[in-house]
Structures
1.
Amino acid sequence: MNLLRGICIALCLSSPPLLAAASDDQAHAVSSCVSPNSWLQLGSREMVDESSVLAQATLNRVVLLGEHHDNQSHHDWQLRMLQALHQQQPALVLGLEMLPKVVQPKIERFLRGETTIHVFLEEVEWSRYWSFSADYYIPLMLYARDQGIPLIALNITREKVNEAVDLGWTFAPDGMSVPAQATRPYIRHLVMSFQRHKFSDEELDMLVEGPAFRRFVQKQLLWDRAMAESIHAQLDAAQKVPMVVAFIGSGHLMHGYGVPHQLQSLGIEKVMTMIPWDRHLDCRVLVKGFADVVFGAE
């Protein structure tokens, strides 16, 4: 399976950086891109209030809430948004990037109250499947359980991703469809992600034309597709789920390149993306299409 056919890697190297670590000198400028506790609507470039954001969200079938995985303020914001959206739409379903679909039966046991949160984390092998502390996510999962919100694992295991990339599509999870081809802007974006491994310019030029970068892109596409298909399955289910709220890393959502692109290819159009601001982002990413709205989480 060649997921990169027709993509000119040289084109990728001409774009400006999408991510940058904020130095002390830049900290004030970066943090002022989106004021704390405020909402920026990127289509109009206007500040909007939260009630307007929530009203807009209710018009969509999918609401994607981004995060920087180890940023506590992002998870606090996600919980607050989940609570607000649940008030607006009591029948919503919550999806998590952090867990693979193979652990769904153990999630159901937890939701039925048959296991404690700590037993649940052991049963789903949290540290095996997710490298960030469960402490960030425990309040979200407890809220879902206590409020009777269905909790759905969106992802597939790293082992299945590696098999599909290394051995061919016949080793992909049963029923999974081939991902929509990556757009050129997404490839450029992934080059910058790949570059964060601190390669020299000469090394990077060589590596983005080689198998390591191709595998990197293929893996990202498989994760994007898996999460999009899991969301689609909920919307297509017999119980007619009115809304899926998904917690997914912002890198899979920015500019609509990742999960939103795969959702669109599956025919799902009523999708809203909310991304919490992170001081490690370059202010230049705040262009139309980066997200529907950005929240000043820090």
2.
Amino acid sequence: MNTVKLFSVLLSILFLSACNNNKDNKTATNNEGYSKVETYEYPTDSIRINKWVSEGNFKAMYKHSWNIWKHLTDSLKGGKLRYQTWASPTQIVNKLNNPSGNENTETLFEKPHQFTHHNPDFVTDDLSIVVTVGYNKASEKFAIDNKIFYLSSLQKMQTGPYSKIPDFPSDAINIKPVYKIITEDKVYDGMYTMSAWNGPKSYDDGYPQSKWKSCIHVNINEKKNNPSGRLDYACDDINNNNTFYLDDFIHFKISKKQAASYNQQINNADVKAKEGDIALLVAMHVTTKEIKRWTWQTYWWSPTPLNPRNPSSNAIASSKNGIALEGAAPHYAMAVAYSMITPSQPYINGKNEGNPLIAFNPYLEAHFGKFGSDSYVMNNGSKINTNLGVDSNCMSCHMVAAIDTKKGSSFNGPSYQGDKYTSYKDPELENRLMLDFAWSIQGNLQTSK
């Protein structure tokens, strides 16, 4: 049974409450040490969330995921948003390697590991996309206590055909923010043009941004807002409807070190970032360990946040009503996956039968062509193929986050997969160490430790 930790804003002291005493609209645990009223409890009891899943109560899941978004994007003392205060795996490794040190590090940019995991020769068509990975305080403590980024630690955990690392704690949150950096070469007459999602299309070789043929324009000089506009399908017809502003995005000015990390990752002589350039948050994967297989929600910037394109929906968008998102946070769309398919299947001995549950991020998975594994869902005797990025599900993909710690640098990890049911006893996971859904462990593994 999980314990719900509550901070009292008036007394600023910690109370413990039994997990079954959950009620809406209370003050949530604040691991960062700030007193701040929240509109939901975190972590919410797993029994309660699993009931939503079993009953197909998507309205409750949508509301919960928007509350998670509020939790991440609330501003804290000092001006940063909560998610911006969390440590990256690199920072956690630095703490592991220097437990008594006082090294002043910051979160740096990197290319998404999933691009090259899916295809080692993959080259993105948008050179401005970079990511960070963040672990909240609970995840960070777990990572340090269990030394999960050390290969030697994981080797000790792989003891049988279906080994797994210990479960992250119930209040763990892991995130992957996705940014576009506005470098000088991409600004013309004060305007920055970027691809914006127009909904999925199925191509065997994927649906990358070069195929979207839909853009918006960002005026980087004027202080205005455009709460809802239109796409520019010519990508060169700038008008009031398709022009947005920096304040329509979660954004910040990058540091000298962040600019250097961007330039190192992009490695293009014609694209150079410098200190003070703007990072626009265009997307974010978010997972919380409130249930055994984690809750999964993914967000991306939308020009029409009240009428978003698939894999979001109007029902998802309307569920943000009453949540009081701050600043530019309402400008983002969302998709959720609290199960792999519907109805939800058990941890083992389930069936890959039912309805697909599609939840992917346009900026991270839409470009994926056919996966290496055969993904599908059976529905009333018919096979529904789900073998593309636009047919994927966060939980399904992260379910196969696993490695064979005895296989050297490749670690023999499973291929990514689209939406399908996968059991904890799936043949793909046999003789591998399951990483509790965290691909970020494999992507940041220290093989010398």
3.
Amino acid sequence: MEPTYTDRYANLIEDPVMKAYFSQLPGYIQAQIRARKQQPATLEELQRMVDEVKQLF
């Protein structure tokens, strides 16, 4: 059975690799990622979102 999350960013906390990657990002990028409706489910999705945010700035 897969874990269910009540917090849409709980998987960032549960996955140590994603947590480490996310925590080293500048605050403005973290804020943009948190503001999105769709949560990143994998490290690759998180990295893609970061690339999209960087293109905006």
